[in-house]
Amino acid sequence: MTTKHEQILHHITDLDVGEKISVRRIAKTLEVSEGTAYRAIKEAENQGLVSTIERVGTIRIEKKQKENIEKLTYAEVVNIVDGQVLGGRNGLHKTLNRFVIGAMKLEAMMRYVEAGNLLIVGNRYQVHKLALEAGAAVLITGGFDTNENVITLADELGLPVITTSYDTFTVATMINRAIYDQLIKKEIAIVDDILIPLQDTYYMTTDNTVDKWHEMNGRTGHSRYPVISEDMKVQGMVAAKDVLGAQMTTPIEKVMTKSPITVNERTSIASVAHVMVWEGIELLPVIDDHRHLLGVISRQDVLKALQMVQRQPHVGETIEDLVTSRFHETEPGSEYVYKCELSPQMTNHLGMISYGVLTTLVTETGSRLLKQYKRGDISVENITIYFIKPVQIESTIDLKGKMLDVGRKNGKIDVELYHKGAIVGKALMMAQLLDR
């Protein structure tokens, strides 16, 4: 039996894209409390099913597929630029293909404006009208308004006209930043990318007995199964060691591991690998926010995914990419192991090396040293920085790493940072070693 929360989510999913949603209406339609309706709408927003816009309300939007994640809806643009919708509210759910900055003569500008575009422009009423007629939405910068004819046309065509107090350059930067952030997220492998879905998952129920485990083991060849209740919520995990020596009629509930470690579909693969290695787990149940079973994820699939991710080209340059691109081995005979030149992007507002960059330098030094001792992937477990001095912009940092301890699964490294021969940082790094 589904909960009221799930019923509301199903109801929202079945609504037409672009339809307006309110707590009061949901509560009245499904006969639930307003508190329950509010929590479910927030969950729908987290899942990308709805978007809430100031002065407009909450509307049903298209849930993006992974391959379309770099595109934004007009509703998201409103939120990014702190905008106000002047007209065309029923088109906020639509996805824009690209945006055009209208900083040119009318004839030249209209050559670039097409259906599905977003034209970013100032208070040029004629341009607003022509853009809408061409099938493009309009974002007016500088806090300017438009005339009633344009608003009426926007409502008729279902194309939003949005105003924001920011200037054109700032708006373009904000939208680009949002797209860039989504592109980076797209490159991060998550559980949803590799999970074995529920229809292909073998599981047991709390009313099963040990003989059911033996029957499933003989049929599937697997030795580990999640155990669920009648309402599909994960209650435990059962493995071969749990049923060893148990009577065939013993209830699974008596031998299973209760309250097992679980992950959700938005957890990163790197985080899952860390948990599996640290806890010695071969199979993890994947659950939703209400502990309902969505599928399982195996250790073998996780390690394969990590290897595939490392071969993928990244869309944009992160801070880590920036640091490692300037990170080099020193010449033979040097007392230092590595060196790195500090660029302006690697400093804080005072022009000193930022704490995040310092952490990346320690991580990179420790990881490279560990890989000389053992092949495989490195998962940083703990970094303790216990000495730090300011380092100026455009300086060269020399790094010296010392292996304190390395075992089959763990390593411990001491890292020292120098500038012009004087020590400016000292850290201790502990890491897990993941076999490939």
TrEMBL record:
Keyword Calcium tagged: no
InterPro entries the record matches: CBS_dom, CBS_dom_sf, Diverse_CBS-Domain, DRTGG, HotDog_dom_sf, Ser_kin/Pase_Hpr-like_N_sf, Thioestr_dom, WH-like_DNA-bd_sf
SMART domains xref list: CBS
CBS domain mapped to chain residues: 256-318
Keywords: CBS domain
Protein's UniProt keywords contain Transferase: no
Protein name: Putative transcriptional regulator
